[in-house]
Sequence to fold (464 residues):
Amino acid sequence: MIAPRARRTDTARMTSPPIDDLRGFLDVLRGSGELNDLRHPVQRMHELGALLRASEQAGKAAMFHRVEGAEWPVVGSVLGSHARIALALGCTREAMGGVLDRATRNPVPARPIEGPAPCQEVVQDDVDLARLPVPVHAPLDGGPYINAGIVLGRDPVGGRHNLSYVRLQVKGRDRVGVNLNTWRHLRDFFEAAEARGENLPFCVAIGVDPALMIAAAFRYEGDEYEIAGALRGTPTPVVRARTCDVLVPATAEIVLECEILAGEREDEGPMAEYTGHYSGVGRQCVGRVRCITHRRQPIFQTVAGASFEHLLLGTAVTREPRLRQLAQAASPRVREVLLPPYASGFLALIQMHEPRPGEVVNVGLAALNAHVNINTVVVVDSDVDLFNPTDVFWALSTRVRWDRDQAVIRHALGNELHPSATREGEISKTIIDATLPPELRSRYSKVVYPAADLAAALGGRPPR
Ligand SMILES: Cc1cc2nc3c(=O)[nH]c(=O)nc-3n(C[C@H](O)[C@H](O)[C@H](O)COP(=O)(O)O)c2cc1C
Ligand SMILES: [Mn+2]
Fold:
């Protein structure tokens, strides 16, 4: 049992040592009772995915020590709950929004190191992806998917590094499908390279510390290594890849050094996506793996498609800071914002205190611009708890007059995976005003009973 990590409140700095690799974080999770260690053999096809889902739903990450036909263990759902993300950040659930927000405004750049790096302890120039224990997660997935890799690319203009997640379908010894959605920095870099007839070098770091995992999910115009450094409180040590000019995290478990091939497209998919539906099969980019490096006895990390981890990282917590900034810039009467993971990042909930006439629409428009995927904004009064879906549905059912309180925006850009979008991602968006208009506020007050100590009353004790 290791000592619990000191918790960071809104203002205090972390006092425990920073977590600087995946192994360090797994120790923290074990010490906090947040990790299931599964030691009996499991199948890489489907069985591992089903057990991982069961473990996540029971509230824990899962480490599979014996995967049939594989040498390396697999771990998943490492950041699959608010509690585990809070542990990674060394803060409380309530302080998380502030910690993430400040990280985007206090960049800590990566620090290149010389000499041998753990991630390059073993080098495999004769690439064979079959050596990696890549699971087939969901029942209808089109094949094994590497989802948890931090995809590292460099801006051809200026050279900044970009960190993101891109699902990679394993297609052969050294071949992967690369699913790049429309609104992605790596896609911009690739299109610029392809226009010159060139391949785009990129690397994939699999098995990294949680600050890097969280940073990669951010949409940020700078270099996302800066966010990882800010979240951890120390710069990310990086080392040059062996075959290209990309800097990779020195403590990663595994690194794939790759390139996206100019002029090539192939069928890719289907895969269980964050929308809760399977994606279709589409013509997507193709990557070639040129070299694999790894630590001795590496741990393979995975994120199952449509898992809570996928939703939390990809659609919720990392997008709330910008949502809060833009909504509060539109009105000082914005109190709280939320991208509830159950709505896959398409729904933004905003709580306002006594908005002025018309202001809800202004805030709604700002919120729609916080991330391209957001297509529904619901604004509620300050007596409605955003974290309680029952309360939000109550406001929707009792405080909306549908011919007056809804603005519909047509022909906007959203995400192409949404079932209502065109193939290019064109979609309609809406702002719903579920606040009481000023003239009704005094007429309709919410029924709230005082809190009571039922346990004390049942036990015959006097209430505290
Ligand atoms: C587990 C996971 C898998 C993801 N897979 C993809 C993907 O296959 N394609 C994609 O375009 N975005 C994917 N995303 C979303 C992007 O990684 C995310 O929006 C990121 O901010 C994009 O980086 P960028 O803003 O620097 O372009 C995924 C996110 C997560 C958390
Ligand atoms: Mn980016």
Residues 9-14 have pLDDT under 50 and may be disordered.
